[in-house]
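[audit] Reproducing an earlier prediction to check determinism. Same input, same settings, fresh worker. If the tokens differ from the archived copy the diff job will pick it up downstream; this log only records the rerun itself.
[audit] input (319 residues):
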Amino acid sequence: MTTRRFVILAVLNFTIAATVGILAGMVYKGIRGRQEIHVDKCEQLREKIAALADTVDAEVGVAVISGDGDTLEYVNSDRTRFPLMSVMKFHQALYVCHWLKNAGQTLDSVMEVLPERYEENTWSPLRDSHPEGGTFSYGDLLSYTLGHSDNIACDILFELTGGPECTGLYIRSLGVDDFNIECTESMMHEDLSLCMENWSTPLSSAMLLEEFMRNRDKDEFMRFIWNTMSECKTGTARIPGRISEKTAAIVHKTGTGDVADNGRIIAVNDIGIVVMPDGTHFSLSVFIHNAACTMSQCEALIAAIAEAVYEHALSEPLP
């Protein structure tokens, strides 16, 4: 009787062990299978972006960071540094808010802007709306830089907070590198070649977006930047172009360069955070440089890349 019981228990233990082993193998294969699917889909997205980039005569750089940290980079040339243009106003806004907080000031703190401060031949809805000058808060000026990409408002903020160098030092203190900001808008308009002195890799800009995403509800300053960028009036045909009606939110900042002497557009850029309907998100930066195509073709390319990343995010398997 004892021997029979031992045999039965041994068989049962062997059966349980075998079953556990089979289940473990199934789980392992399932996880490995999902990982392989994930890698395959990332490669498919890269190939899709490459195919889209091939439709224009330009240097194109793209970086994507998903909410769980997955990262994709793509550049169709040897270039790693792309001119920021007005994308730098996002970097500046983060620093200005830091500067205000350290100075014990608020977004409602005001300053007088005299009409003598205005420059001609530069993009400035501030100047056009208030040709006689006026009293403006820091929040007003940031609304013009982030929402309307105002060049005069940008340079006023540089003057008030220590210049481009201070903005760069602060952004590096956040752990983000591979960029450079040393020129004002006025400097770049006087000498187009200086546009190349304000540059970033696509990944560096995407990393800064992720840093902002983590702190978007930290205080009134971060919430202000988020809300202002979500209402950005420039570049609506770029990242938001094909996905604005599908998403929960898009915050973005554009950058646009002039036409160089060779007839090519210096830059058409957009960086942004796309919040999916389920609350997940991805950060996307797209830089187009030295473009022989039209502005509308560049913007359509950015919109198509954003749509491809959005569709990829929708189809991602569970981890």
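[audit] rerun output stored. Observation attached for the diff report: Residues 1-12, 14-20, 26-35 have pLDDT under 50 and may be disordered.
[audit] end
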